What we know:
Order of helices and strands: HHHHHHHEEEEEHEHHH
Low-confidence stretches: 1-124, 202-230, 237-287
Structural class: alpha+beta
Largest sheet: 6 strands, antiparallel
Oligomer: single chain
Number of strands: 6
Helix content: 25-40%
Strand content: 5-15%
Distance between the termini: 35 Å
Amino acid sequence: MDDHHVEQKNTYLEEVSFTSLSDCLQSSLVMDYNSLEKVFKFPPYSSPFQPVSPSSMGHIVNNPYLNLNSNSPVVSSSSNEAELKENPNDKSDRMEDNEGDQHGVGESSKQLTKQGKKKGEKKEREARVAFMTKSEIDHLEDGYRWRKYGQKAVKNSPYPRSYYRCTTQKCNVKKRVERSFQDPSIVITTYEGKHNHPIPSTLRGTVAAEHLLGHRGGGSGFLHSFPRHHQEFLMMKHSPVNYQSVGSMPYEHGHGTSSYNFNNNQPVVDYGLLQDILPSMFSKHES
DNA sequence: CGACTTTGACCTGCGC
DNA sequence: GCGCAGGTCAAAGTCG
């Protein structure tokens, strides 16, 4: 089983020219969430590009707004400005700001969250990481326990987006799961926030996955999803951190000047918060 | 019976 | 100001 998965993972990584997941994470698959959002208009299907290929990857790769020719590492950017802009009173704060209150449920909590926040008060948005996985399963097993708290139809997509929250008390990590309508076999998962607890040990695969990745340490739920369920990791992105050093990113919506670089038409991906989810993997990269 | 899902309503930000 | 879309809440339903 594990062998099979390992094989699968390697295959994929090989495609993107990486010999290991770490490589992959540490070299180029770096785009920050906002960038992706712009590129994809996150979700991808509502992106400004023409639907070109049947697959999301093709979609990205062929995106006229992206420079995919270079072999250089990717990258991205998210302008902090954009980020700030997006954050005004981020709704997601409602709950997060009320930490102890999150379980206080009921109207009181609802009202509190609605009125308790000061006007104009801003809070930084939680780091987010998104990645695409080829899988028939929408909700990928990643080692953590999640509770679905909502589902919404997505504009221009026949597939709904599901919202999940980590069930561990005091852990405000959330994730969104949606399927690419261009390639229904691809599931786009976006994590937001950091887990402040270890992966539930009762879940299978944890050790195997860590072993497989030669990595141990709490945290990275998503890693555990690789070896399971016939999933193929397609892309991921991580946060803002180095996009500047890599160069780039001016792609303000439609300006077509973006500088994302990918290794040959390969999957790419997404971003943002991997470093939060996989702190140990990024520590090197960022230090 | 607790944990989780479903689903309609509600809230908020944003563009026009 | 209005309408739309994304995100969240919470009651009701389902499952083990």
